[in-house]
Amino acid sequence: MKFNPSSNIQDLAQFGEFGDVNPSVTDSATYTFMQAKTMLETFKGEAEGCFLYSRHWNPSNKYLADAMAAMEGTPAAWVTASGMAAITSAIMQICNSGDHIISSITTYGGTFAFLHNYVKKFNIEVSFVDINDTNAVKVAIRPNTRMIYTETMTNPLLQISDIPTLAEIAHDHGLKLVVDNTFTPMMVAPARLGADVVVYSLTKFVNGKNDCVAGAICGDLDFINSLIDVNHGTAMLLGPVLDPYRSTSILKNLHTLHIRMQQHSRNAAYLSEKLQKLGLRVIYPGLKNHNGYEMLKKIYNPDFGFGGMLTIDVGTAEKASEVMELMENKGVGYLAVSLGYFKTLFSNSGKSTSSEVPEEIQKEMGLSEGLIRFSVGLDHDIERTYQTMEKCFKETHII
Ligand SMILES: Cc1ncc(COP(=O)(O)O)c(C=O)c1O
User: Fold this and answer.
1) Are 28 and 54 in contact (CB under 8 A)?
2) DSSP letters for 238-257
3) Is the CB of 84 under 6 A from ligand 1?
4) Which CATH number is 185's domain given?
């Protein structure tokens, strides 16, 4: 039977203590025990259904984590205070000092900075590769390699990772494959394709409201338990826990994600075709000339389309600023970083979300200074949006 993330979420039966259709918010940092023995067992992880302390587990966080696990088809999940907390906790849980990581050279700028600058202090080395070049991935493997890291659809170049092949390479060499699925929830289920751990910034499409920052780590039960182990767990000991009020609000938004992804994809596909016809250089994985088009078709769930992200290249950073200011002014959307919002957001990647990537590496990965990344919103009348965009491009002499 076809894997259906939205049915998995629909089938969740999570009630509050009074039969509330939305599970209650557990507004407690600690939990009492009627018997001291049960507390001891809970510390040892032996008491089913008992909660100890909210940095470890909170019932509201557990509901959201269970929903994320259902969506990804993983046995377990844990939610974090940000996407970066999910990424860094997963990486630090898997890697020890002296280990080596192979990462896609195009990733979110914060992830790049963490891997390029930060892990050095733990004596962890990272090789950055073109993730579409599976031979380069194989060649980069060393005796101390522990992990291959990539994004399903990379930020901001929208390359598509061949997750089944990367999983095969990883597992042939005893490595873990960790995949950031932030751009492609519902559309792609990396764990079903062989990824060992799937990380998310819930800040983006999953929550969709731009009212908070959050993240999730999805994986098998042993891995999730190891993250929250009271003696050795990265998440338990560094403490990037999500506030239960936020879990509760994100969980409600998760129930509309399938509809939102369809509309984001529909609108982005519409704009990408029209903008390409105007003669603009458009990158959108749903266009047949995108080099990841066939790959995405192999691994995606067609019910949710090719996603809500597209880029155009207007040549220079100055031109990008000019047209973005005009688009903001004319109501196309907001000049802002981030993505997955109901309004269209756009930013000049090289000067914003990828500004952590040094200019020479931006060039090496093919990130042009005039690249504008769009997270296309949920506009009902996308033709109207397109017309406004066309006027903006004409007025700034881009076309
Ligand atoms: C692909 C991707 N992963 C992770 C993150 C980090 O998420 P957060 O801002 O929630 O920490 C971002 C943020 O832009 C992102 O685009």
Assistant:
1) yes
2) H--BPPHHHHHHHHHHHTTH
3) yes
4) 3.40.640.10
Do 245 and 265 lie in a common domain? no
Domain that holds residue 244: 5-254
Assess whether the C-beta atom of 215 lies below 6 angstroms from ligand 1. yes
Dist. CA 377 → ligand 1 center (Å): 18
Per-residue pLDDT tens over the stretch 306-331 = 999 999 999 999 999 999 999 999 99
Which residue from 107, 158, 182 has its CB within 8 A of the most atoms of ligand 1, so it is best to mutate?
Answer: 182
> Residue 337 corresponds to which tokens in the numbers above?
């970083």
Q: Is the CB of 155 under 6 A from ligand 1?
A: yes
Q: Say how far apart CA 180 and CA 199 lie, in whole Å.
A: 5
Q: What percent of the chain has pLDDT over 70?
A: 100
Look up tokens 């009902």; give the residue: 380
- The predicted pLDDT at position 352 comes to 87
Cα of 32 vs centre of ligand 1, distance in Å, is: 36
Between CA 194 and CA 180 the distance in angstroms is: 13
Total structural domains in the chain?
Answer: 2
Nearest CA to ligand 1 atom 6: 83
Q: What is the pTM of this model?
A: 0.98
